[in-house]
């Protein structure tokens, strides 16, 4: 389980009810609510800094396990540097050993039972090199700090971008509340600590969908293609939007050309730099899924691998069917927003990995749930149940980190650190509970007309 830290105006014609949705003013958030959100975020950061990281260091020392820079950016950066400056293949074993030396502090030894299993090989599409090219001549420590600031800025900016995508106008104080809770959530903190490119992909997806909602279809396609540096996170959003584009081809085809053209440029440029990279990438990806635990999704963990695969396949088919059924929907309408939420929630449930930082992709889903919470709450008892448990799963990490932070005031740090897992207990449950809520309350969300 990867809990640890190391490791312009729209050109669309909106249906009549969508104008109501896009013009709703958001209520002001009380100062008390803002203070509580800041306190929750502060407790989560305190948990990570004072409890989780010290526990990991003590545990690694006790097991004689290696610890280096522990930056998920480092394997990609070193691979890009070696290819661009020295012409070396980043997928080769010798580069992997050099990556391990920086990431873990030394090459990992399979004969040592306490050594990590994750080889930290260069398991990204080769065209990620184009994004990292400006940094390859810089010291990694400088690149690392700059990346943290960039990812933090993207995470903050993604909030107004997602709000724009959904057509949800809320007050400045409400936006600030969303930003504080997002930056103070464990997924975002983990992503920042690891310099995880998932935060970059999440920002690019937010920008792409915002451009789409604003009628900048070509730009939306370009941004989505760049986000494909993590294909497993983009394949379902891309498939859904490509199907959606067929609903108004004369207008939306620019999105397809933007996406396809950029993918050709990225893949073709990478082929010039590193002939045969696609085969190398496929082999590296297959190895990655094997040494990181067989590529299990949260459904595989919750339902067993066989049943998890069956349910995942069914969910993907449901998503693609709904994309076809709703292909005529315009952006910023209840139907399109629900389809977006279903896409993101399904992605998190079926991708073959369950690291918490991936949950930043659920931000627009949470926004839509909050926006339509009244309609959902007025629905069935089953809806009440899933609203309640989803909220409980979401808020538990902050509650647990608060209790642990209080514990630090009265107990030895080593005693509190024994409960390091407490804020992470609902991690597996958040994606599936969120998806269930989106599916169960589809009618309430799609028929929503009143402000949340």
Notable traits:
452 residues; globular; 22 helices
State the helix count.
22
Helix and strand sequence: HHHHHHHHHHHHHHHHHHHHHH
As an assembly, this protein is: single chain
Strand content: under 5%
How many domains?
1
Which structural class best describes the helix and strand composition?
mainly alpha
> Radius of gyration, rounded?
22 Å
First-residue to last-residue Cα separation: 36 Å
User: Main beta sheet, described?
Assistant: none
Notes on the structure:
It is a single chain. The protein is 68% helix and 0% strand. The protein is mainly α. It has one domain. Helix 2 packs parallel to helix 7 (172-183). It is globular, with a radius of gyration of 22 Å. It starts with 17 loop residues before the first helix and ends in a 6-residue tail after the last helix.
In short:
The protein contains 22 helices and no strands.
Topology:
Elements: H1 18-22, H2 31-63, H3 73-86, H4 93-103, H5 128-132, H6 140-166, H7 172-183, H8 186-194, H9 198-213, H10 217-227, H11 231-245, H12 249-273, H13 277-291, H14 298-303, H15 305-325, H16 334-350, H17 363-371, H18 373-377, H19 381-410, H20 413-417, H21 429-440, H22 442-446
Helix pairs in contact: 2-7, 2-19, 3-4, 6-7, 6-8, 6-9, 6-17, 9-10, 10-12, 11-15, 11-16, 15-16, 16-17, 16-21, 19-21
């Amino acid at each position: 389980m990867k809990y640890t830290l190391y490791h312009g105006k729209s050109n669309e014609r909106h249906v009549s009810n969508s104008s109501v949705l896009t013009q709703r003013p958001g209520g002001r958030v009380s100062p008390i609510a803002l203070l509580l959100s800041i306190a929750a975020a502060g407790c989560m950061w305190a948990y990570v800094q004072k409890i989780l990281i010290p526990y990991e260091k003590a545990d690694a020392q006790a097991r004689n396990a290696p610890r280096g820079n522990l930056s998920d950016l480092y394997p990609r950066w070193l691979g890009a540097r070696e290819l661009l400056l020295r012409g070396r293949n980043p997928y080769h074993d010798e580069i992997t050993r050099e990556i391990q030396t920086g990431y873990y502090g030394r090459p990992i030894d399979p004969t040592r039972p306490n050594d990590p299993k994750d080889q930290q090989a260069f398991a990204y599409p080769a065209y990620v090199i184009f994004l990292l090219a400006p940094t390859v001549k810089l010291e990694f420590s400088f690149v690392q700090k700059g990346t943290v600031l960039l990812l933090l800025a993207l995470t903050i900016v993604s909030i107004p971008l997602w709000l724009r995508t959904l057509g949800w106008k809320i007050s400045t104080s409400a936006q600030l509340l969303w930003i504080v809770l997002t930056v103070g959530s464990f997924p975002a903190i983990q992503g920042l600590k690891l310099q995880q490119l998932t935060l970059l992909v999440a920002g690019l997806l937010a920008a792409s969908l915002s451009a789409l909602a604003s009628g900048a279809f070509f730009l939306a396609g370009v941004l989505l293609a760049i986000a494909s540096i993590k294909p497993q996170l983009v394949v379902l959003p891309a498939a859904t939007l490509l199907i959606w584009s067929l609903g108004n081809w004369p207008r939306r085809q620019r999105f397809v050309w933007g996406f396809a053209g950029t993918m050709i440029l990225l893949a073709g440029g990478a082929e010039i730099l590193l002939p045969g990279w696609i085969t190398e990438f496929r082999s590296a990806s297959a190895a990655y899924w094997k040494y990181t635990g067989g590529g299990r999704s949260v459904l595989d963990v919750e339902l067993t691998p066989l049943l998890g695969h069956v349910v995942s396949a069914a969910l993907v088919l449901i998503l693609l069917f709904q994309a076809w059924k709703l292909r005529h929907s315009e952006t910023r309408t209840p139907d399109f927003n629900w389809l977006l939420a279903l896409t993101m929630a399904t992605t998190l449930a079926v991708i073959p990995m369950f690291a918490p930082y991936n949950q930043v992709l659920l931000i627009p889903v949470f926004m839509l749930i909050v926006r339509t919470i009244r309609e959902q709450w007025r629905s069935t008892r089953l809806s009440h149940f899933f609203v309640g448990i989803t909220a409980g799963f979401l808020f538990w990490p902050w509650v647990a980190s608060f209790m642990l932070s209080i514990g630090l005031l009265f107990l030895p740090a080593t005693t509190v650190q024994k409960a390091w897992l407490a804020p992470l207990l609902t991690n597996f449950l958040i994606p599936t509970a969120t998806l269930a809520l989106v599916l169960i309350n589809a009618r309430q969300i799609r028929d929503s007309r009143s402000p949340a």
